[in-house]
């Protein structure tokens, strides 16, 4: 008896112990899985939005020091902003994925900067820009601050994750990581025939663009007349207005590109900032145009320096002899003319060009031209000389203006596996073909770099106040940023927007708006007609008011007022009816989901129950 | 395995021969619709995804899963059929697994019947159906975890009401453990590591992670481990009761 009781007790004890064992085992499994199984996942989203691109992975893997990423998101203030919250979820997930991939080198923190808190002060001190429109009018912070250890690189920030830039969110985060991880500025070479540095002797300041580039990169000026080799340490080369370049200089550029260097070429059919005399001391006529014919030919690009693009629909307004006139050769290209899918131009609003040329691909090339800036389809092509001749009256360019209905490329990325333009040269280290696909950015204007096309300089308290009125400076800065980052950064392309609206409701809304506008116009016309009739009845000014007319007038005024009231009511009804269509759709869908299907299930249950009961009765 | 299949078939069939299953399904579908359209603001927010629908599932399961599982073992014990079950040529673990799978399949059928919301969202816009599929997988796994907990609670007591309350309470605690408000509350008192570990135990957190459209091995392991652990505990509890 005692043995069996002892056995019984020990079995109960063992079973209880096994319960404890199960709990411990469960916790161990969860702990191990959360610590070690970090990368095994299947991204079921159609655009693979939660899968980092190889470019980002390269940058994260290349990090050599610990970084802290702090995501500031006003959680409380965004309770009612479903779209922003859904976007935050995506950004947060991407950051978490990056942190996991970094194997402890990146620490991710998320902070809700509630109003009047230290966190809010910190967010502002890092340069985050809050948006207005949160719940109860609170400000909404949604930005990222990245910092390395104390005393290291200054913290970098993404001031606000604008949902409009969603396609580039991975690029922006990767760029921030890249800049934090590689504190050295990119080396930028500038080779130019234009006076970018100004002239200290005669008191001409450097162009604003140069000052901006100095902040952005480690700039080296290269003399186009004596260059025979481009320093391999230079990651981006800006070639501005290449005129009469020696063969050695062209060869140096050719080999730079074949080695994988990033080149931006600015050529121009008419460089207005070119200070060279039109006829030099040797009597050579110089038209202030520039070209890179040998290299362009090898790369499969066609550029004609004798032709200028006009675009009457995008003409900038200039002041000439006290008159404001649209200059069809000076173009203000807006967001609709800039490539939204390219990170360089996606967020720019306007770039101003003056007497620009255009690029085309040669018929037999395999290269690709990806537009950055293009004209509208109202553009036309004229000889550069005609533009120069019409300097005193640019409106004459509109005479016999015939748009070709083509959109011309003023700036573009050229992608190809480049071949040398100098196959006959056999120097040591000569490359005949690039080792992989490369990229050159082409811009068909040099004037866009000059202050006059994008910056307003005003003296303020003894200082010069610079106010940009176009994004020309940002365009060049973005190019340098993009090309100077790393090839990994360049490879990160924009992703498709992850937010998907109710297209059917939107279409209904748009149709309703259109119907409403038509109805509104009809009613307004009617109202106008009534008003006009009323005015006709008004006696002429100064004439004695006959009493008979007053009665008729009064009746007409009465009718007018009544009709006005009726029209207001009718418009409200129209609006109501149109919204009702959307509401009715919502109601139908609610009915199907909440009533119809559960009702059918209930009906099925009832029929089944009834048949069972009947069968049971029959058996009895 | 045939024992498991036999129990699964018998149990699943038993759901549909009584009106309880239909009542349960109707309540589930009506509640899912009402919560999605009214609390989740599905139509007015204008986004072609099923986030408001899946967001409500943890709270829906919190009430409905204990209702399904409460009678699973408690009734067998109360009515004395447990001994009969033990005398059949099936092991305790086979019986537990069979009953669990039947309940899980039943919830799966309920989930499938929510297909009109999937058709609705595809009619209204162009949703990412991969994300929606992941949402269904996450929801079903969460239901599985709840059912496993309910199974264990049902083995622990004779009273169906107590089984219901215990299941709802444990599931509620597991849901709460990952809520930011709860984690914030303990932030100052508990070391961050513990807070992190507490978050890892949250059912809703893992289900939400899957509902974004990503099937992560960690989340799958979590659900698998939760189901296995609670079912194993159910087997031990039944064994304990038998030993007594």
From TrEMBL, chain B:
Keywords: Cell membrane, Membrane, Transmembrane, Transmembrane helix. One of its GO terms (molecular function) is ABC-type transporter activity. InterPro entries: ABC-2_transporter_component, ABC2_TM. Pfam families: ABC2_membrane_3 (PF12698). It is a multi-pass membrane protein. It is found in: Cell membrane. The keyword Cell wall biogenesis/degradation does not apply. The chain crosses the membrane at residues 12-38, 58-75, 96-119, 131-149, 161-178, 220-240. Residues 62-182 form the ABC-2 type transporter transmembrane domain. GO terms for cellular component: plasma membrane. The keyword Nucleus does not apply. Its main location: membrane. PANTHER family: MEMBRANE COMPONENT OF ABC TRANSPORTER YHHJ-RELATED, MULTIDRUG ABC TRANSPORTER PERMEASE YBHS-RELATED. This is ABC transporter permease. It comes from Luteibacter rhizovicinus DSM 16549. The lineage of its organism: Bacteria, Pseudomonadati, Pseudomonadota, Gammaproteobacteria, Lysobacterales.
């Amino acid at each position: 008896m005692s043995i069996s009781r002892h056995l019984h007790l020990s079995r109960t004890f063992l079973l209880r112990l096994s319960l404890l064992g199960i709990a411990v085992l469960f916790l161990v499994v969860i702990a191990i899985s959360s610590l070690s199984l970090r990368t095994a996942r299947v991204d079921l989203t159609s655009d693979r939005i939660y899968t980092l691109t190889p470019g980002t992975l390269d940058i994260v893997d290349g990090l050599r020091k610990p970084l802290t990423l702090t995501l500031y998101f006003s959680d409380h203030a965004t309770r009612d902003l479903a779209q922003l919250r859904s976007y935050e979820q995506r950004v947060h997930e991407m950051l978490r994925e990056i942190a996991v991939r970094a194997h402890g080198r990146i620490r991710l923190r998320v902070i809700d900067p509630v109003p009047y808190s230290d966190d809010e002060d910190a967010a502002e001190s890092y340069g985050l820009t809050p948006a207005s429109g949160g719940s109860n009018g609170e400000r909404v912070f949604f930005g990222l601050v990245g910092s390395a250890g104390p005393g290291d690189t200054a913290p970098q920030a993404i001031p606000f994750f604008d949902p409009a830039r969603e396609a580039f969110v991975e690029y922006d985060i990767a760029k921030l990581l890249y800049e934090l991880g590689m504190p050295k500025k990119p080396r930028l070479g500038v080779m130019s025939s234009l006076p970018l540095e100004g002239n200290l002797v005669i008191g001409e300041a450097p162009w604003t663009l140069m000052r901006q580039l100095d902040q952005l990169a480690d700039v080296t000026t290269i003399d186009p007349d004596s260059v025979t080799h481009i320093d391999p340490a230079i990651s981006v080369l800006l070639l501005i207005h290449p005129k009469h370049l020696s063969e050695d200089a062209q060869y140096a550029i050719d080999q730079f590109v074949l080695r994988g260097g990033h080149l931006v070429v600015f050529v121009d059919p008419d460089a207005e900032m070119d200070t060279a005399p039109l006829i030099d001391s040797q009597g050579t006529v110089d038209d202030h145009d520039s070209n890179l014919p040998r290299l362009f030919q090898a790369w499969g690009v066609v550029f004609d320096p004798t032709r200028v693009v006009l675009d009457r629909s995008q003409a900038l307004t200039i002041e000439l002899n006290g008159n404001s006139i649209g200059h069809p050769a000076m173009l203000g290209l807006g967001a609709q003319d800039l490539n939204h899918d390219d990170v360089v131009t996606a967020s720019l609003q306007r770039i101003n060009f003056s007497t620009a040329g255009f690029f085309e691909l040669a018929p037999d090339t395999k290269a690709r031209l990806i537009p950055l800036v293009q004209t509208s389809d109202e553009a036309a092509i004229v000889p550069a000389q005609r533009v120069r001749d019409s300097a005193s009256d640019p409106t004459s360019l509109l005479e016999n203006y015939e748009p070709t209905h083509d959109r011309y490329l003023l700036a573009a990325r050229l992608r190809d596996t480049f071949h040398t333009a100098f196959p006959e040269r056999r120097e040591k280290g000569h490359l005949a073909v690039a080792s992989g696909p490369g990229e050159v950015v082409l811009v068909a204007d040099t004037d866009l770099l000059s202050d006059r096309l994008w910056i307003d300089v005003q003296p303020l308290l003894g200082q010069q106040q610079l106010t940009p009125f176009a994004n020309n400076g940002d365009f060049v800065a973005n190019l340098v940023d993009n090309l100077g980052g790393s090839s990994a950064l360049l490879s990160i392309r924009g992703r498709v927007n992850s937010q998907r609206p109710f297209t059917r409701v939107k279409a209904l809304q748009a149709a309703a708006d259109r119907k409403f506008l038509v109805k509104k116009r009809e009613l307004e016309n009617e109202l106008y007609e009534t008003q006009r009739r009323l005015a006709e009845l008004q006696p002429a000014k100064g004439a004695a008011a006959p009493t008979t007319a007053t009665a008729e007038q009064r009746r007409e005024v009465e009718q007018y007022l009544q009709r006005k009231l009726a029209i207001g009511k009718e418009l409200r009804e129209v609006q109501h009816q149109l919204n009702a269509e959307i509401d009715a759709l919502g109601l139908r869908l609610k009915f199907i989901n909440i009533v119809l299907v559960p009702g059918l299930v209930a009906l099925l249950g009832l029929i089944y129950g009834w048949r069972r009961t009947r069968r049971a009765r029959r058996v009895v | 395995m045939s024992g498991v299949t036999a129990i699964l078939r018998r149990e699943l069939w038993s759901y549909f021969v009584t009106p309880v299953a239909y009542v349960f399904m109707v309540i589930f579908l009506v509640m899912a619709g009402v919560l999605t359209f009214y609390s989740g603001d599905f139509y007015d927010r204008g986004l072609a995804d099923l986030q408001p629908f899946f967001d409500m599932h943890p709270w829906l399961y919190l009430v409905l899963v204990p209702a399904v599982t409460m009678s699973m073992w408690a009734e067998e014990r109360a009515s004395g059929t447990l001994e009969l079950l033990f005398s059949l040529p099936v092991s305790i673990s086979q019986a537990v697994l069979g009953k669990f799978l039947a309940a899980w399949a039943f919830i799966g059928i309920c989930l499938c019947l929510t297909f009109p919301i999937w058709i609705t969202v595809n009619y209204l816009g162009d949703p990412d159906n991969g994300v929606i599929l992941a949402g269904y997988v996450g929801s079903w796994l969460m239901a599985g975890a709840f059912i496993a907990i309910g199974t264990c609670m049902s083995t622990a007591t004779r009273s169906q009401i107590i089984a219901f309350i215990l299941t709802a309470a444990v599931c509620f605690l597991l849901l709460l453990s990952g809520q930011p408000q709860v984690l914030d509350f303990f932030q100052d008192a508990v070391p961050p590591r513990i807070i992190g570990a507490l978050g890892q135990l949250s059912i809703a957190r893992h289900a939400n992670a899957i509902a974004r459209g990503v099937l992560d091995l960690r989340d799958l392991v979590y659900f698998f481990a939760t189901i296995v652990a609670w079912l194993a505990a159910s087997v031990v509890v039944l064994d304990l009761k038998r030993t007594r």
